[in-house]
Amino acid sequence: MLPRGRPRAMGAVVLLLLLLVVGFFLFGRDPEYGLGTTATLDEKPYGSRNRSASSSQLLLPSKCEVMLHVAIVCAGYNSSREIITLMKSLLFYRKNPLHLHLITDAIARNILETLFRTWMVPAVVVSFYDAEELKPLVSWIPNKHYSGLYGLMKLVLPSILPLSLARVIVLDTDVTFSSDIVELWALFDRFSDKQVVGLVENQSDWYLGNLWKNHRPWPALGRGFNTGVILLWLDRLQQTGWEQMWKLTAKRELHTLTATSLADQDIFNAVLKEHPNLVHPLPCVWNVQLSDHTLAERCYLEAADLKVIHWNSPKKLRVKNKHAEFFRNLHLTFLGYDGKLLRRELFGCPNQFPPGAEQLQQALAQLDEEEPCFEFRQQQLTVHRVHITFLPHQPPPPRPYDVTLVAQLSMDRLQMLEALCRHWPGPMSLALYLTDAEAQQFLHFVETSPVLSARKDVAYHVVYQDGPLYPVNQLRNVALAQALTPYVFLSDIDFLPAYSLYDYLRASIEQLELGSRRKAALVVPAFETLHYRFSFPNSKAELLTLLDAGSLYTFRYHEWPQGHLSTDYSRWREAQAPYRVQWSADYEPYVVVPRDCPRYDPRFVGFGWNKVAHIIELDAQEYEFLVLPEAFSIHLPHAPSLDISRFRSSSTYRNCLQALKEEFHQDLSRRYGSAALKYLTALQQSRSRA
Amino acid sequence: MLPRGRPRAMGAVVLLLLLLVVGFFLFGRDPEYGLGTTATLDEKPYGSRNRSASSSQLLLPSKCEVMLHVAIVCAGYNSSREIITLMKSLLFYRKNPLHLHLITDAIARNILETLFRTWMVPAVVVSFYDAEELKPLVSWIPNKHYSGLYGLMKLVLPSILPLSLARVIVLDTDVTFSSDIVELWALFDRFSDKQVVGLVENQSDWYLGNLWKNHRPWPALGRGFNTGVILLWLDRLQQTGWEQMWKLTAKRELHTLTATSLADQDIFNAVLKEHPNLVHPLPCVWNVQLSDHTLAERCYLEAADLKVIHWNSPKKLRVKNKHAEFFRNLHLTFLGYDGKLLRRELFGCPNQFPPGAEQLQQALAQLDEEEPCFEFRQQQLTVHRVHITFLPHQPPPPRPYDVTLVAQLSMDRLQMLEALCRHWPGPMSLALYLTDAEAQQFLHFVETSPVLSARKDVAYHVVYQDGPLYPVNQLRNVALAQALTPYVFLSDIDFLPAYSLYDYLRASIEQLELGSRRKAALVVPAFETLHYRFSFPNSKAELLTLLDAGSLYTFRYHEWPQGHLSTDYSRWREAQAPYRVQWSADYEPYVVVPRDCPRYDPRFVGFGWNKVAHIIELDAQEYEFLVLPEAFSIHLPHAPSLDISRFRSSSTYRNCLQALKEEFHQDLSRRYGSAALKYLTALQQSRSRA
What we know:
By secondary structure, chain A is an alpha/beta fold. The first copy, chain A, has 25 helices and 23 strands.
């Protein structure tokens, strides 16, 4: 285990490497094996033993006026997930405006920009700094820590953060707050004039150098300090000549020590050993370090209150500890916490709203709660938090005819994923509609599935649940926007494609010269089985046999034949070449289109007409519909969704859907003029039939 | 709206009445209509304006030594639900041991005893007091408040709580904590020698008496005090002659005022008007009153920190308020909070564990995480929090042949409930496996469904989710234990019974003289349809026609015929009278049995063998299996569950199930001796076939 934490800035490759490596000795990372019992932490390190009001000596800054600055280095998919739990705990307790300074690689930036934009937390400003640009500043330092160069970047923060910034709190991504960060900020006031950095003592014996034979740690004051939580007095650091100072120290030590073991922490400690007047020791409760054989208990059993928990064991939540359950529960509180509840204002503080939030609130406030379609209106306006590429992902290499399967699902369809992976060997972009707690279950599900964890070309985008109606088209648009190949196969999660479909589609796209010459939507004919156990046909011939035997039907043959009428299944039986079909009312085939195709209309939430409207849009934009003679996909049985049940049982629901359709057609006429007339006519005919 | 809160001690009847009544004037309950603007709250009531550490003057009691006492009056189903959110917020922030004194009616006691027993929160003691016994003490007071007599019971707390108890905090059920209750407790230390009761000023103008013409409130000091949060110094109250005092005041005022409008609050205020030296005014942040036209903003905009939010509008979370979103988010935080995360110890405090918790923890700690069936072992040991009768419920009248449908479900089967209600007009006992957040969605689902909200004979028992495997038999046992009729129909949620089944079963039970003469399990033959839309047969004849047409099958005919082989469907086609069948391997019919039948074996978690084991148990206990000739129920299609998918795809899962089966058989042999041999033989035969 590690006596300190790091922003676990690992790309997928690094993670894989780590998992493959047996033990940590390879990295020289397990300082506490053979931990001696003679060395003891001070009896009362810095924790306050008595329960007099925890911050009794502090005058806390007033809530609105003081903007607190927090800097975090974050790189890769896993750290981007981890930082969110830290953020939720921080935001839960904070009462001041916050400015986050995030030093990120391209992956983390992409994820976190989307997340914060859609999260819309009042009184939070986020600035991004490109970690790539900082690499040359630290890459000369040999480093054995798994965080790679990213940990070392904490050393150069004083030079890259804005000059106007006097003070900043620096955090590792693996800490959890259980108190208001303003209390930590207030500790700056306890600094003497000379002190420039605030740190908690290291809660392990690593730096005592007696852990095993020939263990030679970097120099440190006693047990040294942990850099998972740092108070940096930036302007004083500049004045002190920090940059020169740490570089000199590092270079000197590197004459005798081959590399840093604990990255920036080694260098911080070496500098502070030399200049002990620079450090302000912080109370131990501000960085309770749960490494595997931590001595933290001596801190926390004495303390009235724990402020920040630091998961600085590579085992993270699985760390063995007498009080593990207690700490885990603190962490799980925020892991599963519904992040939208943090969209709460700070009382009496002006100008807190992030872009768009105020207009959105006004629009929501103008809705009439008594109106029968209120739920629909509210759902349409809802901005869902979006966490793109929730899991490590390897983008597909650029290939001119490649196609991504696009679909969306919620928790009750997870069991489809493995089968889908077996049927579709190509890239996928899937939107998942989950609660924060379900997102964790999903993570566990993927990690424990050999099939899913082997596939790095499937991108999972979590859209967080909010509201009673399933925002099907918003989900589709998220998945579609994240597809990285030139073509997309717009499918649904209950369908399994023919085993050959991925290859066949790429060949067809090439042959038909889609995109370059033709604006076309390739139709994949849809079938369904009603049986749970079902032997999937290996060819069109086998499929036709099953169809004739009554084991398969064309999709929704009994309930909604018009949805696929235009596909013309009898022609498809005989077809040897792609054939063009014309749009007809309620047509909703599964199609392959260029990635830049029109988006789905987000007004359709819940059940009904969500794909139909999209196909109309394609037709209105003059996409040809070409049915592929060898393509097919098969729908597996499932229970009716809650939304379809509500549609069937509630006339209000049906009336609201009708109203949406009409508004959609009005917009269509506005945009396409007389060309849209045929859709309106079709709608009116279907209404008069109904 | 109401200017104060009450424990909303309403049974279902009172709730219904309230819903039916148009407006609150009938109760004289809307004091703020016509609210004048002349009266103002003090500029700085008791909130501290500056953000100097909030409790800077307080020496907080040390965490272990001081047991905090909290008294709450709680009656009926809805208050029992409400109090849990209060408890979660209280437990989240507390760091001291708590002793809860709950004054409950029989309904609330039943619910809360089960809940706290299964919640197993360390360092919480719960004592119950029978509200029925207190009624005579306050029933002489005419009272127009919707809380009925329960509100008034706060007046007699000093006489009923143990004499050893010096001080207590009294709370209404509709408050939410956003801070540590120890800070409130510490305010006792600010009482002068004479002060006996601590209260927050009322944040409305009700007691000023200028709200409308002829508005005659009870006497009060200025705006009076709100009794949603009370600090009671019990021994001093006794010494002061509290009982005499409030009775005298109440009787005197009742000469001129016909009744209390705000129950105990009127009387508290009248007493304090007369004896102002008895009251210690508390800072307004300890009872931020969100009535509809509250003046609370004057408190909270000034305050650094809100401590307790009081939802004292009958609209509760739907109250209109500029900052409603902020307060709602605080409340929703705990509404959806996973209560099991509060099972966390208090550091360094001895003897905190509730009965059974320590043994359970030890058993869990002894499990080997590396063992392949670890997840199964862990799931079997898990004690789930159980909230019985989550919604208002009318127990069925005692009828000798009545039968309750027993089933269990999770969120993805909610859409079955309405159909089930249409098919089964009798009582039901349903266990729902939900997260805390889903329980709220479920509540919303029932409230917005006319079919479900009309049915008061359906009891819903929420079992809170914990762990990756569906604890199917634990759920069944919860539903079974709560069935209140002499017989139960043990069904599954995906089955719809014949429309006539409820009547037919009762008639059959009577005719067959079940229970008294025969120990029998009545078999209801099971069928299945593969179609989403399906016209349910009205009779056996219609069912047979559908069966012959291939629209229906006998249940799991394709996948698992042995499950219902013994039912002998061909005999059933022709049968005119009940016929006896013999057990055979893997038999798992749906049966009607006396309520005191054997429980399901909770070791079977996830998919597989959960019903089979129960039927073996019935057979071993010599229940006759009698197939009913006119009974049937039909399974509707749904997607395979996550558990069945895992069963199919994971050999470990299948091996673990096999291990469970073998352990079950060992236990069976131990209990039934050689009589259990036939089950073992059957198991061995099936294993050798596999």
